[in-house]
Please model this.
Amino acid sequence: MEPSIYILGIESSCDDTAAAVIHNGKILSNVVATQKIHEEYGGVVPELASRAHQQNIVPVIALAIQKAGIDKKDLSAIAFTRGPGLMGSLLVGSSFAKSLSMGLNIPLIEVNHMQAHILAHFIEAEGQTKPHFPFIALTISGGHTQIVQVNDYFDMKIIGQTIDDAVGEAFDKSAKILGLPYPGGPLLDKYAQEGNPKAYTFTKPKVGDLDFSFSGLKTAVLYFIQNEVKKNPNFVEENLADICASIQFTIVDYLMDKIKNAVKATGIKEIAIGGGVSANSGIRKALQEAEMNYGWKTHIPRFEFCTDNAAMIAIVGELKYKNKDFTELSIGSKARMEF
Ligand code: KG4
Ligand code: ZN
Model:
């Protein structure tokens, strides 16, 4: 009989304090405390994030263990996010993970947050399809924009990434210019669905074939709005849906161009997306169309596994546990981290 393995995953790299328990590929609990404090500042304030993590971490972990219906003594190992992320935030999760691992005398497993976004596809859950190796992963969120060639669970290569802002920032900063509250991405998406995507045109930024740049788009949106508001002070209110639809169309088209370039460069037609921006209706629709038009196979994880969460940390923990890939208690956190 297979041994009963229970792994606790802890995620604290940015502004979500999260804990999850996994058992044989299935998530038993997945708890996320999203920090509301940043809303009034229009972006994540690192110092406030660390403080909120410190307040949230114990109740979040206790709840994850309770919801999983186990006792902490049943845990086989503790997996935690080592990086990349905000140092003060990472330190809270890693210190707690180390203490728990020492207290329970069970192994500690370090997890790379970006690898976890990709390996979240391997969680067994209804509505999830597992990609086959090799595949292309597109990780799109408020903190990251990467194209990764995934040859095996732990054999990944970044083949493209943003040279400035992340795509989620492009959504949020554009939304802010339109007066929408932070984080504006989901709202921009909502209005976009009622608008005409061809109403206004924004030039797509030009960088390398597989790299991204979003800072120019933000400036283009800002100048466009400033110019129009001079002529009509009610321009934004009167045309909100069309403006949102046009911005979203530009971003989605740009993302699709890059995926097409990646398919061309690698010959791989299996695409898996992850990160908060995968919730965007435009990118979801474009990927579904690409399945039919180009014969691609695409995978979009359940939303709870797309945004920052600890279930993705737990699945990596389980995969590493099987390889006995444990780490020392003296390990340090890393704000920047390659694969
Ligand atoms: O993965 P995530 O929860 O956190 C990190 O940034 O790591 O991603 C959050 C980002 C935010 O920028 C948010 O505006 C964006 O994902 N987002 C969306 C949508 N839902 C979330 N952007 C566009 N359309 C959406 N539907
Ligand atoms: Zn993330």
In short: The domain at 6-120+306-322 is CATH 3.30.420.40 (Nucleotidyltransferase; domain 5). Residues 113, 117, 141, 143-144, 275, 308 surround zinc ion (ligand 2) (CB under 6 Å). The longest helix spans residues 235-266. The longest strand covers residues 26-34.
